[in-house]
């Protein structure tokens, strides 16, 4: 019988950081309604409203990079507070905007501050959690955000029936609540690392191990975003309702939450980084192949559990690997560079996914994604030669 690996209790500050981020995630539903708000309140076309949303999306890419820079220069805690406060101001501006130009300005502002707090949050975990426990810590953060995401949907369903602008007010309040928690419980930043930081200021983009992880991370993010965007569009081809995707996404979130003890099983905890990443990609390939082979709702739910186990094995481990290969004074920037994979994927996924769906149909789309997961598994093994056996 496989026993659980010994577990050290995560530092109190990290546990409270995860709680604070979950509080913030409870309100992170407003952006899904930005296009609807613009088109309904200002009477513009969906295409015009979409341009504003696209401008927000583009602004998030430099936001994450700037967040990593500030995390290493200004400090983790200060950068998180700056990002959360900036998000609250921008969201309240959107809620109060009386014209299209004003709401567009606040949407771009929101994009520029939206990712500031991600790199310092991830860097704080790398700073305060021993290397052996980082995969578990990052996975716990992912699980907490997944759990809060389910609650966010319920809040959106109730508040959105009243007035869409109040969604942005609630989102702003959760940002401020998160900032208050972090301001009260996270210790102040230490002295700035001026000279040491300047030495490594540009090393992240020249580190072959990080660039290899960025390539794998971008492929993973692309696969994940195609699932999120295209699953509702494919279900009607199977005779199901698009809304049934909500059930499958809930199954995925519950799997990630309930599966946390899996990471403590000795065979899983002892996996070398590359082997763990490859195993996760293989599970994702199996689950997505199930989407192609068994298009009925119960079978799709089982397939969702399988690919979500793969997500569980990969997500926390990938961030732990990046934190492990980063110099201590450049963790914020390394994690920020790795995080840009989600920005790239957000732009590419709707284009690539819809083209595959149009040309190959639903089953062909999922078969292609399963193949992409196998490519990711092979790439992870190759990356293992660069990151070494103890990067996570």
TrEMBL record:
SUPFAM superfamilies: MFS general substrate transporter. It is a multi-pass membrane protein. Gene3D superfamilies: MFS general substrate transporter like domains. One of its GO terms (molecular function) is transmembrane transporter activity. Its main location: membrane. The keyword Repeat does not apply. Signal peptide: none annotated. InterPro entries: MFS, MFS_dom, MFS_trans_sf, MFS_Transporters, Sugar_transporter_CS. This is MFS transporter. It comes from Nonomuraea glycinis. The lineage of its organism: Bacteria, Bacillati, Actinomycetota, Actinomycetes, Streptosporangiales.
């Amino acid at each position: 019988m496989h026993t659980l690996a010994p577990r050290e209790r995560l530092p109190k500050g990290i546990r409270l950081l995860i709680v604070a981020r979950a509080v913030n995630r409870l309100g992170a539903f407003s952006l899904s309604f930005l296009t609807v708000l613009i088109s309904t309140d200002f009477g513009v076309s969906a295409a015009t409203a979409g341009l504003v949303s696209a401008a927000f999306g583009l602004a998030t890419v430099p936001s994450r990079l700037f967040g990593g820079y500030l995390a290493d220069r200004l400090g983790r805690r200060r950068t998180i507070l700056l990002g959360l406060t900036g998000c609250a101001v921008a969201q309240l501006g959107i809620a109060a905007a009386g014209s299209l130009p004003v709401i567009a300005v606040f949407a771009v502002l929101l994009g520029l501050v939206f990712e500031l707090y991600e790199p310092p949050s991830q860097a704080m975990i790398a700073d305060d959690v021993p290397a052996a426990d980082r995969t578990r810590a990052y996975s716990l953060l992912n699980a907490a955000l997944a759990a809060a995401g389910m609650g966010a949907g319920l809040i959106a369903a109730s508040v959105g029936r009243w007035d869409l602008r109040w969604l942005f007010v609630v989102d702003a309040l959760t940002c401020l609540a998160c900032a208050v928690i972090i301001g009260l419980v996270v210790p102040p930043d230490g002295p700035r690392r001026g000279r040491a930081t300047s030495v490594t200021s540009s090393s992240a983009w020249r580190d072959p191990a990080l660039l290899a992880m960025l390539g794998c991370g971008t492929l993973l993010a692309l696969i994940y975003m195609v699932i999120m965007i295209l699953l509702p569009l494919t279900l009607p081809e199977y005779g199901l309702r698009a809304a049934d995707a909500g059930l499958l996404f809930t199954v995925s979130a519950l799997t990630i939450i309930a599966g946390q003890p899996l990471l403590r099983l000795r065979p899983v905890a002892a996996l070398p980084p590359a082997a763990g990443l490859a195993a996760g990609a293989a599970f994702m390939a199996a689950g997505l192949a199930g989407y192609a082979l068994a298009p009925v709702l119960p079978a799709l739910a089982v397939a969702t559990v399988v690919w979500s186990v793969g997500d569980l094995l990969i997500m926390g481990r990938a961030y732990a690997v990046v934190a492990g290969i980063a110099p201590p004074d450049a963790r914020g920037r390394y994690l920020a560079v790795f995080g840009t994979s989600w920005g790239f994927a957000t732009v590419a996924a709707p284009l690539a996914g819809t083209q595959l769906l149009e040309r190959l149909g639903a089953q062909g789309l999922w078969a292609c994604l399963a193949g992409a997961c196998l490519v990711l598994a092979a790439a992870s093994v190759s990356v293992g030669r660069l990151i070494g056996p103890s990067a996570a």
